[in-house]
Amino acid sequence: MYLYLVIALSLLVVADGLYFHIAETEKKCFIEEIPDETMVMGNYKVQLYDPNTKGYGDYPNIGMHVEVKDPDDKVILSKLYTAEGRFTFTSHTPGEHLICLYSNSSAWFSGAQLRVHLDIQAGEHTQDYQQIASKDKLNELQLRVRQLLDQVEQITKEQAYQRYREDRFRQTSESTNSRVLWWSLGQTVVLVCTGLWQMRHLKGFFEAKKLV
Amino acid sequence: MGFACVHLLIALLHVGLVASIELTFELPDNQHQCFYEDIKAGVDVVLEFQVVTGGQYDVDMTLEDPAGRQLYKDIKKQYDSYSFKTETPGTYKACFSNEFSTFSHKIVYMDWQIGDQDNLKKAITPGIHAMSQLENSAVAIGERLRMVDDYQTHHRLREATGRKRAEQLNERVMYWSLGQTAVVVLIGIAQVILLRSFFSDKRPRY
């Protein structure tokens, strides 16, 4: 029973925190640059501006679309959630993931302001250590070591991702380099060809006109 | 068991107050974006931001306390970090503005850390027992790893800036070379036509 209470509480507490405002039909996107096989967890809560109370109140009828695109622009998550909830996904390709949030509201009350509480965590930050501790019966030190392991694992993943990025970066730079090289050669050829053609053409033209 | 659970509960309440959020968002031209956070008094807060791409890599940032006083204001900054201790409880507001820019679309990274980073320490040790040496070093390792993580993030963002620039350069080189080829050929043809017209037009008049 305590465990449930703990989980319920953690859910409650996390949803608050950072918030921002969007217009009712506006779409807001965030970029999460992550290595592959990394879990991303987002908690959100939407509130609607109420002109009567001049405040933001819970409005359970609002739904929230969450759409996640991977670096290849493939949609990996697209769901309609309720006004408050949690979405999770695990990356399969390393790179920039685009997380977009927009409400499902139609024209009835469009123009109103929405307040979105959002918390996005990636990698080992998604782990709920309290839950792990109570589930696996770990003592403090064991839990601590578990957390360190997760941290190191995430750093290793990140480093692997860095190598991947560096590789791509180098490919781009080498491509630029070779393009510049070939272009300079190509430009010389084009110039010489144009010049030769001009000479030949004009020579023929002047001869035909009996100017020379 | 019940006692331990109560501790866990207290700990969890602590965890709720400790938060760090990293967000990377797009900031279109002529727009601004504000973020709000409710913070209690006497909490250490670190706000870090960096422009990843776009224009001159600069953005205006302002930070306001609940009374509307400006704690931090800087214009056209590429990256910065600001730490402060909250004096009054309430809603703190951070705004990023790209209003000075008329065409460059920007991507901005923001890291807002509130309270003690080491939430596990608070979470499982509500100050009732002394830590052993092993635990102390585990805490120290955790702290260092967090620093490693921070540096890595910084590095990743710098790399992203460099990479995007390089990709842009690559693309520009290609378009430029295609464009220039067309220009050289067109000018070559135009020169000939012009030269011909000089001689062709005059001839019949004599």
TrEMBL record, chain A:
Listed GO CC annotations: membrane
Protein keywords: Membrane, Signal, Transmembrane, Transmembrane helix
Superkingdom assignment: Eukaryota
Signal peptide: 1-17
Subcellular location: Membrane
Ranges in coiled-coil conformation: none
InterPro entries: Emp24-like, GOLD_dom
Chain ranges of the GOLD domain: 27-122
Membrane topology reported for the UniProt record: Single-pass type I membrane protein
Record field: transmembrane: 180-199
Record has Phosphoprotein as a keyword: no
The family this protein is said to belong to: Belongs to the EMP24/GP25L family.
Name the record gives this protein: GOLD domain-containing protein
From TrEMBL, chain B:
Keywords: Membrane, Signal, Transmembrane, Transmembrane helix
Gene Ontology CC entries for this record: endomembrane system; membrane
Residue ranges of the TM segments: 173-195
Topology in membrane: Single-pass membrane protein; Single-pass type I membrane protein
Keyword Magnesium: no
Pfam families the UniProt entry points to: EMP24_GP25L
Entry annotated with the keyword Membrane: yes
Localization annotation: Endomembrane system; Membrane
Highest taxon, organism lineage: Eukaryota
SUPFAM superfamilies per record: Supernatant protein factor (SPF), C-terminal domain
Record's signal peptide: 1-20
Xref: PROSITE patterns: GOLD
All residue ranges annotated as the GOLD domain in the record: 32-114
Primary location recorded for the protein, binned into one broad class: membrane
Family membership noted in the UniProt record: Belongs to the EMP24/GP25L family.
The name this protein goes by in its record: GOLD domain-containing protein
Originating species: Diploscapter pachys
